[in-house]
């Protein structure tokens, strides 16, 4: 009986112990599960917003940087295109085109002249008139545009005539200051232009020389010119080409002048001069 009582007591005690321990375990599980879920949920939610917050920052920074770089590149492109346009220097180079309103230059060349208005036969049988070689030189002034301009000149030039009869001759050579005022028309390319000119001319005879050769002997003397025979007037005209060289242009020109003059005895003389010259005309002042 003692043994049976002790076994019954142990079973009752064990059941009571089991009844007390099972709820405790259940309560511990129920209390720990929420704690675990809270502790696990809290770290999971905190990194997620941090990752979502940093991701928009990088996404927003990239588009914001792109609009700032694109306008800079677009604005730089017109600057490179505006650089050639900002060079009106390209327009003065073809520039090479002269837009100055005033030009100055000089010319120098050779003459082949004669004097008409008389009959060489009056000097003797078999006398013929021949041309005299001389030279000219002076300065030029040009006013106007590149296509049309007015060009006055001041030249020292020589006119003359030579009358020959076999080996003998009589030569007259006059030294003149000649002032032509020419109306000039130019055309062509900037570096190569052609021109024609024509206009009135006035001259003043400073003096002259007469040279004679007869029977193997020769001599010369000065010619006395009175006031009435010093002045003469006429026309002059020519044509040529202008080659661009440096700031100005080299002028190659052929010209012919035709004057009217008279002596004290009323003789009407007609000095004529063919001129071939080279010159240089360059702009002065602003372009």
How would you characterize the overall build of this protein?
The chain is an alpha+beta fold and 287 residues long. The protein has 2 domains: 2-83; 101-283, Porin. The chain has helices at residues 2-45, 47-85, 88-92; strands spanning 102-116, 128-130, 132-144, 148-165, 168-188, 192-214, 217-223, 231-245, 248-262, 268-283. The protein has an 8-stranded antiparallel beta barrel.
CATH fold description of the largest domain: Porin
Class of the largest domain, according to the CATH hierarchy? Mainly Beta
Tell me the distance between the termini: 144 Å
The secondary structure category is alpha+beta
CATH-scheme architecture of the largest domain = Beta Barrel
Order of helices and strands: HHHEEEEEEEEEE
Sheet bearing the most strands, described?
A: 8 strands, antiparallel, barrel
Task: Please give the radius of gyration in angstroms.
Answer: 56 Å
Q: Work out the count of structural domains.
A: 2
**Distinct helical segment count:** 3
Helix content: 25-40%
Give the strand tally. Answer: 10
pLDDT below 50 for ≥5 consecutive residues: which ranges? 1-67, 69-77, 87-96
Beta strand %: over 45%
């Amino acid at each position: 009986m003692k043994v049976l009582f002790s076994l019954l007591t142990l079973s009752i005690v064990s059941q009571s112990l089991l009844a007390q321990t099972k709820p405790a375990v259940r309560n511990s599980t129920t209390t720990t599960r929420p704690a675990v879920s809270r502790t696990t949920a809290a770290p999971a939610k905190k990194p997620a917003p941090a990752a979502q917050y940093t991701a928009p920052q990088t996404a927003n920074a990239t588009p914001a940087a792109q609009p700032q770089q694109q306008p800079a590149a677009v604005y730089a492109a017109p600057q490179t295109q505006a650089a050639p346009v900002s060079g009106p220097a390209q327009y003065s180079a073809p520039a090479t085109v002269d837009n100055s309103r005033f030009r100055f230059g000089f010319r120098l060349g050779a003459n082949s002249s004669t004097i008409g208005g008389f009959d060489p036969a009056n000097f003797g049988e078999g006398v013929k008139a021949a041309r005299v070689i001389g030279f000219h030189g002076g300065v030029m002034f040009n006013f106007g545009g590149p296509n049309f301009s007015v060009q006055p000149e001041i030249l020292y030039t020589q006119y003359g005539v030579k009358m020959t009869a076999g080996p003998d001759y009589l030569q007259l050579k006059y030294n003149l200051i000649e002032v032509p005022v020419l109306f000039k028309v130019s055309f062509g390319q900037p570096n190569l232009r052609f021109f024609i000119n024509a206009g009135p001319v006035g001259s003043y005879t400073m003096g002259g020389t007469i040279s004679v050769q007869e029977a193997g002997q020769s001599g010369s003397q000065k010619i006395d010119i009175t006031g009435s025979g010093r002045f003469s007037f006429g026309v002059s005209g020519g044509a040529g080409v202008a080659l661009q060289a440096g700031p100005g242009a080299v002028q190659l020109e052929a010209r012919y002048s035709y004057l009217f003059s008279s002596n004290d005895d009323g003789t009407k003389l007609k000095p004529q001069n063919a001129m071939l010259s080279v010159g240089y005309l360059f702009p002065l002042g602003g372009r």
